[in-house]
């Protein structure tokens, strides 16, 4: 009798633990299943501008509030919608739940296989909560297993006059070698002698003076191993390796450094990370196909890019959603780094970095970094069902210099565009001939 009772209690406890674990994953990936967040006076379809910015200051990041208050642009409020990540990524998180831990040193992680390493809600009582959020971003589903921005336009603009000073046309490619969940091979490439986690390849297509400039980044599975980064300059006709310090230089004269790509393009071990709390914040999430789109860069297949307006043409014409956000600060370990800190507004559902504020070494706000997120089911046909939150437009606004660089994407979740040979130094040399 006692044994049967004990077994029943053990089974009930196991079911309870299982249910609790399931709740952890569901709460992490489906934060709006019980309803969207709300704020007094905020409604779908309204506009936030200089006349009412004070009313909504609590749900705006500081730079966005100042820009709206100063009349630089107006924010259109959209409906908060769920950006469900791919089911395989969610399931990988379930399978790996409770198996992942931080190492003794910054940049060390134990037991990670795939999915979101730390889906549990961050706690202010946990001194390493910020570091766990950073790992969730690093191993997030941003661009999935492989994707391309094909093509990608950057425009350099004067904030005061709105003059477009320069337009560059790129192709960007992303490939995960390990921790893959959707595209074959899963979970990793068998032929990976350098034990890479991820690679990024960039090629400039226009204009002529920088045509065929190429960038290649290899990120090791070991976060404490420095990235290998190569640059091919067409006029020099040779590949050269970039030092770690050069990833914080302006890339091709833009307001962006290589370390800024995707919100943060560096190692966990390069920064100290601190969790600053959970809030509901307006973020640039939208349905691409429902926007009034640009007509000056239309593709042959009819694809239209996000348009820009506001002061200097520095602000994307998109809708914004009230979303659950983790506020995450990162400050460089290297004392010679050109910034003092970044404040990332991490989308709690997708773990993308749609808003980042960058502060100079004196601690003053330097740059306002925005990456608009488009729902994959309201974008290109090939992106539907991919579960990838599509980077769709960016604005890097240098507030101190009165200048911005804007980006217009044609993001494609398509492994055929990302052959492994693209991500090699040999390919850079071959393309440069």
Automatic annotation (TrEMBL):
Highest taxon in the source lineage: Bacteria
CDD domains attached to this UniProt entry: LolA_like (cd16329)
InterPro entries from the UniProt entry: DUF1329
Signal sequence residues: 1-22
Keyword hit for Signal: yes
Keyword terms: Signal
Protein name: DUF1329 domain-containing protein
Organism per entry: Pseudohalioglobus sediminis
Source lineage: Bacteria, Pseudomonadati, Pseudomonadota, Gammaproteobacteria, Cellvibrionales
């Amino acid at each position: 009798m006692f044994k049967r009772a004990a077994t029943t209690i053990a089974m009930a406890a196991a079911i309870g633990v299982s249910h609790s674990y399931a709740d952890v994953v569901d709460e992490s990936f489906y934060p709006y299943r019980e309803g969207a967040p709300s704020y007094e006076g905020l409604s779908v379809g309204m506009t936030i501008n200089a006349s009412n910015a004070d009313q909504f200051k609590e749900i705006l990041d500081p730079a966005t509030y100042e820009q709206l208050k100063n009349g630089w642009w107006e924010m259109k409020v959209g409906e908060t919608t769920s950006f469900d990540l791919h089911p395989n990524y969610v399931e990988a998180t379930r399978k790996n739940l409770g198996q992942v831990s931080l190492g003794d040193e910054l940049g060390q992680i134990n037991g990670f296989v795939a999915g979101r390493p730390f889906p549990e809600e961050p706690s202010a009582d946990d001194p390493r909560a910020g570091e766990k959020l950073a790992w969730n971003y690093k191993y997030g589903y941003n661009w999935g297993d492989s994707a391309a921005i094909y093509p990608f336009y950057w425009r350099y603009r004067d904030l005061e006059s709105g003059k477009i000073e320069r337009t560059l046309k790129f192709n960007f490619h992303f490939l995960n070698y390990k921790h893959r969940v959707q595209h074959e091979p899963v979970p990793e490439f068998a032929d990976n002698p350098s034990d890479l986690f991820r690679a990024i390849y960039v090629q400039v297509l226009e204009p002529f003076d920088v045509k065929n400039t190429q960038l290649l980044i290899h990120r090791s599975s070991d976060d404490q191993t420095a990235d290998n980064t190569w640059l091919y300059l067409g006029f020099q006709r040779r590949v050269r390796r970039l030092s770690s310090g050069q990833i914080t230089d302006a890339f091709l004269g833009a307001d962006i450094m290589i370390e800024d790509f995707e919100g943060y393009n560096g190692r966990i071990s390069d920064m100290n990370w601190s969790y600053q709390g959970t809030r509901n914040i307006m973020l640039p999430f939208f349905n691409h196909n429902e926007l009034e789109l640009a007509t000056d860069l239309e593709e042959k297949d009819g694809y239209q890019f996000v348009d820009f307006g506001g002061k200097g043409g520095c602000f994307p014409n998109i809708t914004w959603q009230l979303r659950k956000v983790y506020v995450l600060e990162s400050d460089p370990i290297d004392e010679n780094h050109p910034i003092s800190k970044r404040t990332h507004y991490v989308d709690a559902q997708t773990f993308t970095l749609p808003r980042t504020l960058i502060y100079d070494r004196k601690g003053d706000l330097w740059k306002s970094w925005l990456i608009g997120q488009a729902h994959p089911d309201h974008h290109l046909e090939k992106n539907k069902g991919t579960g990838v939150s599509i980077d769709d437009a960016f604005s890097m606004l240098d507030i101190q210099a009165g200048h911005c660089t804007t980006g217009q994407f044609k993001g494609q979740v398509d492994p055929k565009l990302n052959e492994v040979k693209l991500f090699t130094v040999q390919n850079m040399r071959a393309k440069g001939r």
